[in-house]
Amino acid sequence: MNQRGFTLIEVLVTLALFAMITTSVAPSLGNFFTRNKVAATVNHVSSALQLARHTAINENRFVVVCPTVDMETCTGQTDWSLTKMIFVDENGDGALNANEEIIGTADLVKDFHIKSTRSSVVFAPISTAGATTATISICQKEDMQSFARALSVSNVGRVRVEKDSALIDCS
């Protein structure tokens, strides 16, 4: 006699194994998603800084990156969770004027606390003195320090990711 299907014991054993595997994998899966969200946010902010540096060098002009609320003025604050505007600063005053061009933006970042040591970062042309040095800390709001990273801008404009907790300010 041919039997088709599963016995109750086989189904229960399969479900028990599935439950054990799922409960052992779930915590590490959560960390995986958190690490990816942090990496995406770091890349988002880093891309804005890299665009500014690239433009400053290639066009031989000063370029400013700063947080903004209205796309007309920099906030003057160190909270970089807001939208960031990237503009060419023709007169070197650090403010967006009528004749100056916005070359890019980086959108508002939700679920993250982003704090900089400076209210804006200025990238200089290659023939002049370097960029504004800054450290931009990127921390997830619900788990401030575990997966936090920082972007460090050197005086020559190099942007690099830091994992050293001494450089990261999640306060």
From TrEMBL:
Keyword Transcription: no
Listed Gene3D superfamilies: minor pseudopilin epsh domain
General secretion pathway GspH domain boundaries: 42-157
UniProt keyword list: Cell inner membrane, Cell membrane, Membrane, Methylation, Transmembrane, Transmembrane helix
InterPro entries, per database record: N_methyl_site (IPR012902), Pilin-like (IPR045584), T2SS_GspH (IPR022346)
Membrane topology, from the record: Single-pass membrane protein
Any one of the GO BP annotations: protein secretion by the type II secretion system
UniProt keyword Magnesium present: no
Location within or outside the cell: Cell inner membrane
GO cellular component: plasma membrane; type II protein secretion system complex
PROSITE patterns attached to this UniProt entry: PROKAR_NTER_METHYL (PS00409)
Domain of life the protein comes from: Bacteria
Pfam families hit by this protein: GspH (PF12019), N_methyl (PF07963)
NCBIfam families per the UniProt record, alphabetical: IV_pilin_GFxxxE
Family assignment from sequence similarity: Belongs to the GSP H family.
Name recorded for this polypeptide: Type II secretion system protein H
Organism: Psychrosphaera ytuae
